[in-house]
Amino acid sequence: MMDTTTPKNTPRPKRELTYIQKVWHTVGIVALLVIVVLIARVAFNVLLMILAATLISTYFHGLGNIIQRKTKWGRKPAMILSVGGSFAILAVLLWFMGTKIQQQVAQLSHTLPNTINAARTKLAETPVGQQVLGYLDDNSGKIFITAQHFFSTSFGVLGNIYIIMFLGIFFTVSPSVYKDGFMIIIPPDKKELWLCIMNRINVSLKGWLKGMLLSVVLIFIMLTIGLTIMGIPAVLVLALIAAMLKIIPNFGSLVAMIPGVLLALTVSTNTAVIVTLIYIVSQTVVSNIVTPIIQNKIINLPPALTIISQVIMGTLSGALGIILAVPLLAIIVILADELYVKKINEDNPKLQIDAKHVPLAD
């Protein structure tokens, strides 16, 4: 009698998926990819907030180092003076300038519609101006949507500021906790390398902060003096806007000129030309003379690479991405240099020798 039972090791035939099952599998995969992309985008914004908080902590510790060197105090009193003194100076400035700025903001809000109408009238007098007005009218919806996306953030502007400030204070109070916690996950043979990377990043971020802070102060002072001489209204507000937008390289300077030039057009065309020159000269002096001297320790980033990083970061994360594009790019360049470029040069020393003998193009 023959055994008709199926052996245990015999593979079972694969069950074919129906068309509907294949469709649902595809929909599930696409939905999973969309969820992963959305989570990655939110996580990227969170990483940017961590970077912003790190910059705040770097500022407090850098100022604490200066106080410690000048006064010979201990670390704790120097840091208390660094944090407390910074908030005290900010409070005093707001106390003395807050009322004046509030009045000028109200004045600017009241005169801005008339200023825009006057600028449109001036532009309509020339063929080029008519083309510009036509383009703005045709694309006003797109411009509004772009601006709305630019200022959009994961948790809202106030929420992001709240999170960044508290993270910055936590990083300032106990930086060793987070640094040591990060170093725990690093393999023992790589700890020295990552300590070198962290030190380079620290020096680079300090250089960027020094240049930005000095640029903000100088732009505010120079524009306040120049616009006051020209008799432009709302001088403090215009200078403050330009100083804050100085944090955004390349694009910030152009955007800051718009309200000042529009107000100058209400006076006369010659005044608008002079005000434009004041903006250009002040931005040029600060960007090409003062900032490079202060930021001599930061990586020399190519201008084209900086603009590309700003466009990409602005598309991904709006205003916060554009503000942090330069320090983030500096960190990426340092990581690439330490983890990839130097390793290649060590493994292939002939590349360094050959690179020195490459003839320059005529």
Folded structure, characterized:
α1 (19-71) packs across α2 (75-124). The relative contact order is 0.09. The chain has helices at residues 19-71, 75-124, 127-138, 140-150, 157-173, 175-184, 191-229, 235-245, 251-265, 269-294, 303-323, 325-347, 349-356. By secondary structure, it is mostly helical. Helix content is 82%, strand content 0%. The model is unreliable at 351-362 (pLDDT under 50). The chain starts with 18 loop residues before the first helix and ends in a 6-residue tail after the last helix. The chain has one domain. The longest helix is centred in the N-terminal third of the chain and has 53 residues, at 19-71.
> Helix count, per DSSP?
13
Overall pLDDT: 75
Characterize the main sheet: none
Tell me the series of helices and strands, N- to C-terminal. Answer: HHHHHHHHHHHHH
Strand content: under 5%
Integer-rounded radius of gyration: 28 Å
Would you count the extended β strands for me? 0
Name the structural class.
mainly alpha
Shape, principal axes of CA atoms: globular
User: How far apart are the first and last residues' alpha carbons, in Å?
Assistant: 94 Å
Name the helicity range.
over 70%
Tell me the number of structural domains: 1
Residue windows where pLDDT falls under 50 for at least 5 positions = 351-362
